Amino acid sequence: MPVPYRIFGKNLSGALRDAGVAALAMVCAAGLSAQPSSALPSVVEVVEAVASTADRSQRLQNLLVVDELLATLGGHDDLSSEELQQRALELRTRLADIRPLIGDAEAWGVQQDLIDQSLQLELDQHGLRLWPDGNTRDQRLLSLARRSLLQENASAYTASLLPAVLQDVEVRAPLIWQSLLDWAAANETVAAWLAAWLEQDHLALGSAVVENDANRRFATDEAINQALKALTAELTHVGAVDPTLSWALKRDLLLVAAAAEPEQRSGLRAKLALTKALEGLQDRHYLRFAHYLLDVGVRLVDEGQWGTDARPLSQAMLGPLAETLPAISSAFAREFADVDARINSVVAAVFNTVSRLQENADQDWLAVRRELVDASAQLNLMLPDAGYYFDQPVRNVIREEIDICISLAASQTGESAAISKEQFDGCIAGFNDLVARNIRRPALAGDGDGPFGEVQLRRELVLSTWQRINFILGLLERDYGQQCRQDAAALPNPLEWALLANTMRWFADQWPVYFQTPESEQQLLEMMTAGEEINRRLSSWTDCLAGQGAAINDIVLRELDYYRRQSAQLMNAVTEVQQEYRSAYLKPGADVQLTGDTAQETHYRPEMLTIGPCDATRICEMADELEANRALVERFPSSYLLADQTRLGDIDICYDQVEWVDRRSELARANDTNVANYFGRLSYLLKGRFQHDGQETDVFTIRFTGDQEYHYLFAANDPELLQDSCPMEHVGTSIVTPLTGSSLPIVPNRLTYLASSRTLPSRLFGDNWQTGAEWRDWFVTGNGVETLAESDGEELTDRINSHLRELYRGQESAVYGSLLSQPLRLGGDDSLSLAEQLTAVNVAKARLKAFMHLFYPNAMMFDDAIRGAFEGQRGLLDFRGLRRLRDATTPIREIATIGQARSQYLEQHWTQEPETLRRTGSVSAIVGLAYLQLSDLHQRYFVQPPEPAVSEPETIEPPAGESPIDQSEREATDAVAEPGATDTTNSQ
User: Fold this and answer.
1) Do residues 296 and 284 touch, judged by C-beta distance below 8 A?
2) d(Cα 382, Cα 361) in Å, to the nearest integer?
3) Per-residue pLDDT tens for 452-477?
4) Which pTM was predicted?
């Protein structure tokens, strides 16, 4: 809201233009006007401070204090320093109380485009303008916002307007400071107060030190455009902008805009906003950038549709935007998607608008505007397009009511009103009737009685939060009603209420005489009461929930905890599915990492592995099974152990060539050469084998030889038997020997023996494998053990690695498939499928998002971190997020870690928000602006009704020494300052 400082006689615009834009550096060096004291900073110094990013928001708030002091106390010559100090302190305190309600004032801006442009679409069909008197919305709204923000009893609705007011203060900083210096020069008390005020660094000049090149100036359109181009190139190629370049460009744009003709200021201020938007991209202020694009795109359309042939904003911005947007889109598309892919849609829509406007052909303005409205609906309502919401059949009654009343306005010609008083009153009452009845219905505002089953939650929570406000509050009542029971009356849809409030404002301005009646005032107050009801109910819930317990336990933290519990249950279910898969495809006890290769360490040992004969023909009577020990299993290379546990094949150990070695014989009887005893040591082979697809491979072969000699056979004394290493086939055969040396007449004269086994291998194994000599452990010590052959497993490496990859892909596919399949049912028992568990997580995230959007709407609209947590590529995990992880081949084992990190990021960011904001919530900028426009109506038509027009306009004499050119320029500046004056320049 520019303020008419007519008492000072100085005019910065005139001073700058007298010096000439080309000589901007000289003018800046001269300080722009005489200073009351060398201790006071010059206009250039203040502008340089404003151009700095350090403490910028606080600095602008202090300039707002100065601006208000000039507006309210500037005409008083009898002020005391104490009065000035007291008033400044009151204003600073008021702003300090407001700022926490919006968090980062720099990153958030006022967003009314969706409501304004949705209404303008209706008006376009009848050739009508949203602001029929020619004013831009900024003049009236900024004037109203300034007045509301600095009132002692200002409501929460004003908080969302602080960023817009600060932006206005920024572009008028040269004018504000020059006027203050002039005031100080004319009033010693003001000068003394200002000096003391600056000593306390209330302007925060001390933190605005910037190393800069004093010779770097951007005073012409060509220089400014080249600088913007350089900033874009740095940003897209290096990822950061030169702070000195951006600082100098902002400084000179502020100075040049202050010196420019009024009709040129809109373009310069748009370039200033573009500079800040580019600068903010390196700090991830992507939503701010998107809102800036929408804002300038709408203004370009307005200028093209309603403006003069000059079209200064188009002349200034079409070229820079056409060059900037493709490079920005290419460089930042992925990062935009990390916050919300809809930002890319906004960039595309605005670029398309710019391209169409560059064609200089007749445009279908309705189509051009609709594209921007669609982009705004995507950004602000997170919907596919505006028609997805605004064209719903349940809105037919609203559309028809608005269209009928707009049609009445369109039929008016000249000064003759085509609408009667009764029709006017009917429209005003009709808007209120829609608020009282239609937009509170379940179809447009949700049913507070539910039902709140899983199916209903899935269906209801995907709709616009404002379209389901009562359902969400009913859900709160169900889950938190014992702690915070609230009024159960249905609330109106806030979006619809804002649209109807804006329509009422527009309609009232068409026929102010009709509107200035007690009946209309009552209708207006009823509309305002409905808006207050929305804020009161939401604030009550927020304050109650956050106030439970010693620490702040707001609804965001409560619902985030619920989301985490659901996520933990999902991950437990995922682990169970993984175990089921391993049980089906791996052997018991398997510890293989499917993402590894044959180099991984494994402690797997087959359960109940026994050692049997390799070949039944070479077992030498030993047919028993032996128990294997770890030392024997460890003889297998890890590749074979991996193959066994992954069921690629089977390992086993067998004994072979059981025989007697180091054999000798001696006569059983000294005088009988026919029978003998045979002695030897037991020996056998142990073989590790691998069987796959009917093929058998020997992996290792070990010979065992006992250290003790055994009498293993009594049989005939036959050299051939001594050569037989396992003469078991001779056992039981007859041995006939003659009787020699006997005098007895025995017939027949012979003895018959049976060959017999004196020591059986099976008995030796039984007595010595695990007990006795404990042969099994000899494979550890190496006693009596000789390795004959052993594989390193390299021949199996490729096959195992391929098999592991196949199993891993199968496991990932099985788990992701179970997660992302459509559930056949919902709830009811404890054996939920993964898809059903994921559905519960989706619902938990949707709940959190709905509560965030309802109670902290500005955070969802303007905070990149919070928006990214719900809509970004790296947001809280849900169905879409898991599908992205699957498409990126993210291992299942990393899901839990990723999910925890993302929820922790949201919590850390949220807990850094101001305590006041978390305790009380915030009013949506859309709702806040609509309410303040109603307040403006009440102020203008009922609290302070306009005075009758005078026959002769007031003439203000120019101060001494002021030229007629300066006078006309000052009057143009003053006209901009007056509420209700026509100005199309203050567009950013």
Assistant:
1) no
2) 32
3) 998 899 999 989 999 999 999 999 99
4) 0.82
